[in-house]
Automatic annotation (TrEMBL):
PANTHER family in alphabetical order: D-METHIONINE-BINDING LIPOPROTEIN METQ, LIPOPROTEIN
Membrane-protein topology: Lipid-anchor
Top-level taxonomic group: Bacteria
Protein name: YaeC family lipoprotein
Subcellular location: Membrane
Signal peptide: 1-22
Length: 309
């Protein structure tokens, strides 16, 4: 009987010890999880304001922002500004942290004119330049004599537009190495096309409203105005696009080594972005980044070759 009591006491002590340890472990685990949640919840995300020229760009950055917020606690705030010059002014004034919309060639000209020091931090995409026309014109050959053609009115976009008009067989131009093309360099205009220079976002609207017969613009701008790639009479072959007509991510010179911005660039330059944008935009989205890219060196090369004449 005495031995039986001793056995019960030992069993009871063992059971109590087990319960205490188990409860202690559970409380310890709960405390660890709670502490981790509190730390996560208390940490405010780092906000990065990204400027862009189209609503189409906003959709893309919202998708990238979801991934950045989930994995890096970086919150992307898209800022749409329908003015190419204001997008850079907002950056130099500190209203945004970076932008994505411009070529190296546009950036170099802007810096020279405005006295700013904006710099590229990564390649983005190659927005193919396309030629669209009103519904009565079904092919390049159908463009009538005297047709009114709208295009973006700045030296960089004029150059690129004339390159594409030449490639499409509509004009001939005098090309001088190291110099941009301009209207006065057109040597043959067999259809007597009338060129109508407009601010960037106004180009697509000009065809939509019937103010012109033909427009030449990027597919992103065209898409914002309701034009689809399949409606184009001509689309640029992006395999032949020079490095200085690839769209760049840009920030201020003193932030080119900013680790947060580098992370944003990495998430943009990912397979997830390509898959998402290809599914949404098809051939209108062409990624421009490549292994070993040197955006700052490319910028300096362009300045040496084209700006220091």
């Amino acid at each position: 009987m005495k031995q039986l009591k001793v056995f019960f006491r030992a069993s009871l002590l063992l059971l109590v010890s087990f319960v205490i340890v188990a409860c202690g472990n559970q409380n310890s685990n709960n405390a660890s999880t709670t502490d981790q949640d509190v730390v996560t919840n208390d940490e405010e995300p780092t906000v990065v304001k990204v400027g862009m020229g189209t609503e189409d760009g906003r959709i893309m950055w919202e998708e990238i922002g979801e991934r950045l917020l989930e994995h890096e606690n970086i919150e992307i705030e898209p800022v749409v500004i329908n003015d190419f010059y204001q997008l850079n002014r907002a950056l130099s004034d500190g209203d945004i942290d970076m932008n994505l919309y411009q070529y190296i060639s546009f950036l170099a000209q802007y810096n020279e004119d405005a006295g700013t020091e904006l710099r590229p931090i990564g390649y983005g995409s190659i927005p193919p330049i396309a030629i669209f026309a009103n519904e009565s014109i079904e092919s390049i050959d159908d463009i009538p004599d005297g047709a009114r053609v709208s295009f973006t009115d700045d030296p960089v976009n004029i150059d690129n537009s004339l390159i594409q008009l030449k490639t499409a067989g509509l004009i001939e131009v005098e090309e001088v190495e190291g110099e941009r093309l301009s209207i006065d360099k057109i040597t043959n205009n067999p259809k007597n096309l009338e060129f109508i220079p407009l601010e960037g976002p106004e180009v697509a609207r000009s065809l939509a409203t019937g103010d012109v017969d033909v427009m030449i613009t990027g597919l992103s701008m065209a898409n914002d105005a309701g034009f689809k790639p399949e409606d184009a009479l001509y689309i640029e072959d992006t395999d032949k696009t020079p490095y200085y007509y690839q769209v760049m991510m840009v920030t201020n010179k003193d932030r080119v080594d900013d680790e947060v911005l580098k992370t944003v660039v990495d998430y943009y330059q990912s397979e997830e972005t390509v898959k998402s944008e290809k599914a949404r935009r098809g051939d209108a989205y062409v990624p421009a980044w490549h292994e070993g890219e040197t955006p700052l060196e490319d910028y300096d090369k362009y300045v040496r070759d084209f700006m220091n004449k």
